[in-house]
Amino acid sequence: MTTAPLLQALRGAAPERQPVWFMRQAGRSLPEYRAARRGTAMLDACLTPSLAAELTLQPVRRHSVDAAIFFSDIVVPLRLAGVGVEIRPGVGPVMDRPYDSAWAIAELVSHRLDDDALAPIREAVRLTVDGLAAFPGAALIGFAGAPFTLAAYLVEGRPSRDHLAARRLMKSDPAAWNALLSWTAELSGAFLRAQVEAGAAATQLFDSWVGSLCLADYAEHVAPHSARALAKVADLGAPAIHFGTGTGHLLAAMRDVLDAAGVACGAVGVDWRTPLDEARRMVGGGVALQGNIDPALLGAPWAVLEAHVRDVVARGRSGSGGYVVNLGHGVPPETDPDVLTRVVELVHSL
Amino acid sequence: MTTAPLLQALRGAAPERQPVWFMRQAGRSLPEYRAARRGTAMLDACLTPSLAAELTLQPVRRHSVDAAIFFSDIVVPLRLAGVGVEIRPGVGPVMDRPYDSAWAIAELVSHRLDDDALAPIREAVRLTVDGLAAFPGAALIGFAGAPFTLAAYLVEGRPSRDHLAARRLMKSDPAAWNALLSWTAELSGAFLRAQVEAGAAATQLFDSWVGSLCLADYAEHVAPHSARALAKVADLGAPAIHFGTGTGHLLAAMRDVLDAAGVACGAVGVDWRTPLDEARRMVGGGVALQGNIDPALLGAPWAVLEAHVRDVVARGRSGSGGYVVNLGHGVPPETDPDVLTRVVELVHSL
After folding, report:
1. ipTM above 0.90, yes or no
2. In terms of pTM, does the model score above 0.90?
3. Domain carrying residue B333
4. Is the dihedral of CA A147, B331, A105, A178 positive or negative?
5. Does the beta-carbon distance from B249 to A161 stay under 8 Å?
């Protein structure tokens, strides 16, 4: 293959085979992942180039997916900028303090993400691209958390279900919110740019928690920052994928972010709640879609999962515009890896 | 007042004043609640009639809200049916085991909720109604978890973010799922019926987690059971409110549940993500709306909260059909109770 199927689909061309990959495909569901990670803290793994490259490549090796997603974490750019953050097993990212006031944010945004600090990221990407040479047609996707989702962790200081503190700050102190999101947008953009410059062929901006916002708040307080993050890498020509969960009401606005960023082509990610033919009606034909297999069904009997995958793929291919098969959210840790391999085989046969 | 403003609004009549109450208005935000609950486990509090009545009445006494919501918990009917369940502080409801297979569900549904077991619920409702006599115009709303949300706890065995196990069972073993939801629907219906028979003037069916489903799964695997739960009490004539979060894509289907149940009149609850004028377009004019103040803004400066409340109320009153002011989800525990009182005063002045 001269062009990776993933890139063909993102450009709206007919791919040589139906591309498929899985969010969180590098993770606890793989025994080789657990073996490689043993004794290494998450953020240390992300910042050890040889290990990050190995973890990125494992699912390509095992499942023959059409894309590797750069192994990282949403808070890695914070660590690289010198912000106090750790990932507590079973909890998630925990900040040294909540950044929930104008003065805390003023202190936060004095941190800069130096280009030098991105050296281990660039090195890991280069090693991954070298490793991917053995898998023709597999493309590397750069990874970054979106400005809102990064901010939600910063304001709350830790994971939360409802992101109350983020919405409170957004409405109570729009100037502080704007300063915070401008800073996280810089971070997201710089993190993606380092990956594309080092060889990533596409990017994905993960706005995991943005579905907690109403459309008006998203459009006013978040979308311009997401667009600026993606605009920082738009001149490099790599397609961009924009993903969140619970975003049925935001899909058209997320497409607008891709347009506003000036990215050449891209995809909107769709979780399992919105059928892809309906998502297509919402976003129109000028953008690709990615999704939306329900991760819950990875543990269902094969006949149930197969029928679901066939239905999702048929809807994804209906209408105009490209389509990339993926889950609607991440691989659950207890997933049998053989099931993922079988899904890839099925998709490639369609 | 001869008729409570809440009931007027639910019937689509112009209320004498704009009714307002808060989900989770009886809870940790109130010092008198923390004092009354001290040393008593949650489920014990729910099953001690005098205490349950006191906790139900506290917010009416303090905030002059237009409704008391019966103090209970989603899993109380399970406890009354003899199912092993406890509420772990900081975790939530934990079952003695996950009910995630056909044989586990067969065992579960052999449990019956005897009418005798509901005696403490009836007694608590009677005491509450007696206490409410001192607050003319305040109506008591009966409380029950909806069949899906009850099932989500049962299948998972504990709280979960994504409800993967529930969706997996629903699609993998529709017969077991149907048996489970038929049983939880019986429980929800019987729990509500006991409350209305003892004096509750309306009901609210809480389907907190149903927003995790796509519309097709909701319509096929959940809605008929929710309708059957509400149908068990429809002949008593009490208006019904049907609430969930993240349900922007389900609002019309939730209205259909009220219709299918044959309830005389009712409301669809709307969280903070869908503006009420948009929700009105979705559900039409034949039903009331309830919501959708963003709980995140209860901690914002008063000017911000006031502007938000005024906007929500204006949208809620636009178009035809009744409207009940509420939050889009529960009162956050750290809320200043004086802010809630001030919101009630503001709403009553509008």
Report:
1. yes
2. yes
3. 5-349
4. positive
5. no
